Amino acid sequence: MSILYSPTSMQGHEVEEGKLHTISLTINGVRKEIQVLPWVSLLDALREYLHLTGTKKGCDHGQCGACTVLCDGKRINSCLTLAVMKEGSDITTIEGIAPADGELHPLQKAFIEHDAFQCGYCTPGQICSAIGMMEEGKAHTRDDVKELMSGNLCRCGANTNIIDAIMEVKEGGKDE
Amino acid sequence: MNNFAYSRAHTVTDAIQQLNSHGQSQFIAGGTNVVDLLKYFITSADALVDINPIEEHHSIEEMEDGGVRIGALVTNADTAYHPLIEQRYPLLAKAILAGASPQIRNMATNGGNLLQRTRCYYFYDANAPCNKREPGSGCSAIDGYNRIMAILGTSEQCIAVFPSDMCVALAALDAQINISGPYADHTIPLVDFHRLPGDTPHLDNNLQPGEIITSIDLPAQGFSRNYSYLKLRDRNSYAFALVSVATGLELEGDVIRDVRIAVGGVAHKPWRVPEAEDFLRGKTASRENFGAAADIILRGATGFMHNNFKIELAKRAIIRNGMMALHPETQLPGAQPSL
To answer: Has keyword DNA repair (chain B) (predicted)?
Structure first.
């Protein structure tokens, strides 16, 4: 059974009826129906409607990558995505990457081992982006990883450790 | 963002009809530029018509003449990583992969790449005069901080550059843009698709109101043996080009049989000068000859103080990329200098 989610901020407000859309999304394996106005970003839908606040809002303009999620397995900037355009899509956020048995995802473990964050704000986006990158299968060397992770900015100085963590998980850390 | 309506179109006819049924409407595909512009209130819309459901523009296929047709709604990433593009048009693949970020490339479509707006700081600053955003208001860039602006084909109205990497390669490859619309379907060569600013800088290209890009045709000649894309910018990745160069060579020994050179980051459109290519045909692929060709390409280049450096940078980039095209196996991630 699906639950209809609508934002707290919308309650008690008159909404232009014709503009409201009901969409169905599978979020971390669970099907959800939400009512959105067309200008609601996927990022805001996740955070404000579904209360999945793991996905971060950094620049809100696609420049920092903190909002990166996987949409049908591909990494995208949820801030530049209108939720209404993702009807029927399968979305994975940082909350959905660990196996159900209470273990962490290998990248989550590697980030802890490599001290790959200070403030941690970019971390969910970095990890979702790295999962997407490995799925793409185009990163063969450390230089490739650096280039193909350039859509995620770390501003507090952990970038080297982030690349180390990703390299360890990818092919056991070796350049191919 | 302003409060726009949203609808989905399943055919081109449907899309055009929906576009006309709302006041000020826009098509949306990948949305990476449109949503950004809406958020900054640089553009607004009464309605967005989502053209992603149009099925026939989502494929990449070989054509009977040996060329390849790329659907306008295929994403930049799926284009760059498609086997036909990787193998036969690696220059295009490299250029696409030098642009934006992996996340953006997973969203942005090929049609949208052609239609993206300039990243001129003043165009993006709603408080600054800008003839492109608000015709007649003036150009803030000419006497402003114009490091990223154009050196070729500028006008007294606008010195903005067209920021695409993909289109620089498409210009070099003689790509053709297929267009549908309320009138007859037609085709425009990529090199004639974008406009120079002149007195109408608010018009980026020659697409007419209501028209829609359906696909991009690449001729059979892909320069897959000797090619190079070089992108020079203020950081090594995820930044727009100060200068970029796409070079394709067809060689017989060390003699150039055919050549294409397109330059990005220097004008309101990808810059190609056929006279420079004519000069190079039949000559050896040497630094001297590429230098002479660069002088032809950059004839008339004018700086605006903060971007004077681009003239010399473009010359050196053209020479260097010519030499890099002799050794395409040295191409680096992010189209950095490799030789």
So the answer is: no
ipTM: 0.96
Condensed to tens digits (0 to 9), the pLDDT of residues B257-286 reads 999 999 999 999 999 999 999 999 999 999
What is this structure's pTM? 0.96
Size of interface A-B (CB pairs under 8 A): 96
Contacts of B314 (CB under 8 A, 6+ apart): B151, B243, B245, B263, B266, B294, B297, B298, B301
The pLDDT tens digits of the residues spanning A123-171 come to: 999 999 999 999 999 999 999 999 999 999 998 889 999 999 999 999 7
Q: Which CATH architecture has domain A106-173?
A: Orthogonal Bundle (1.10)
Nearest CA-CA distance, residue B237 and chain A, Å? 6
Q: What residue of B is the nearest CA neighbor of A153?
A: B238
Q: Is B107 on the interface with A (CB under 8 A)?
A: yes
Domains plus CATH for chain B? 5-50 (3.30.43.10), 226-328 (3.30.390.50)
Which 8-state DSSP code applies to residue A173? Answer: G
User: Least CB-CB distance to B6: which of A38, A146, A149?
Assistant: A38
Chain B residue closest in CA terms to A125: B103
Cβ-defined contact of A148 to B5 (cutoff 8 Å) = no
> Which residues in chain B touch residue A147, judged by CB atoms under 8 angstroms apart?
236-237, 333-334
| CATH superfamily ID and name for A4-96 | Beta-grasp domain (3.10.20.30)
Instruction: List the end-to-end C-alpha distance of chain B, in Å, as a whole number.
Output: 46
